Amino acid sequence: MAEPEKKKISKFLSLVLRHQPETIDLILDENGWANVDELREKCSKHKIDFTLEELNEVVETNDKKRFIFNEDKTKIRANQGHSIDIDLALKPQQPPEFLYHGTAHSNVESILEKGIEKRNRQHVHLSLDKETATKVGMRHGKPIILTIRTEKMFEDGILFYLSENNVWLTDFVDSKYISKL
C-alpha cells in the first residue's frame, strides 16, 4: 500500500478510535475496542475503504504504534491519546527516574509556570527518550525538550501508566518536577 493511502487511513482511524467515533456511528466498548468488521463497513460508507490485510499493514507499520488488535484480530483500538472517556485498563507502574516531554518553544513559559496539563486528552504523554520527545515537539514548531523528574513524582504519590506502545501516561505534571534541557 502506498504511504499516502496508509497515512490517510491512519489519520481517519485516529479520528474515529481516539476522538469522534460518532463521525461514522461507530460504537466503542468501555475499553475503547471497536469491532473490526463494523469499523471497515462504517469507514467504507465514508469513502475510506481498506481490506483486512491493509488494516493490518497500517497497524503494524505505524511508527507510533497508535493502534492494537485483540488476540484474534476481531477488535481494534487506539493505544492512548483519547479525548473521549474510555478505560484502557492500564495498571499503575513505577516510571524510570526521568521521562521527557516534547513541546513547542511557544508553550515553554506557560508549562514552566503552570505545569503540563492533559487538556482535552485523558492523560499527559511522556517519552522514554529525548529523540521521541523531539519528534513530538516538532509537530508543534521548534521543539523544546523538557526533563520530567518522574521518580520524584512517583515517590510523591503520583500515578503513572505505560501504554501498549510504550508511552508513559499521567494525569498532570506540576512545574516543580520540570526542567528545561
Automatic annotation (TrEMBL):
- What does the UniProt function comment say about this protein? Removes the 2'-phosphate from RNA via an intermediate in which the phosphate is ADP-ribosylated by NAD followed by a presumed transesterification to release the RNA and generate ADP-ribose 1''-2''-cyclic phosphate (APPR>P). May function as an ADP-ribosylase.
InterPro entries documented for this protein: Ptrans_KptA/Tpt1 (IPR002745), RNA_2'-PTrans_C (IPR042081), RNA_2'-PTrans_KptA (IPR022928), RNA_2'-PTrans_N (IPR042080)
User: What keywords are assigned to this protein?
Assistant: NAD, Transferase
User: What GO terms describe the biological role, i.e. biological process, of this protein?
Assistant: tRNA splicing, via endonucleolytic cleavage and ligation
- Per the UniProt record, one Pfam family is PTS_2-RNA
Q: Which GO terms describe its molecular function?
A: NAD+ poly-ADP-ribosyltransferase activity; tRNA 2'-phosphotransferase activity
Query: Know the name of this protein?
Result: Probable RNA 2'-phosphotransferase
Instruction: State the encoding gene.
Output: kptA
Q: What is its EC number?
A: 2.7.1.-
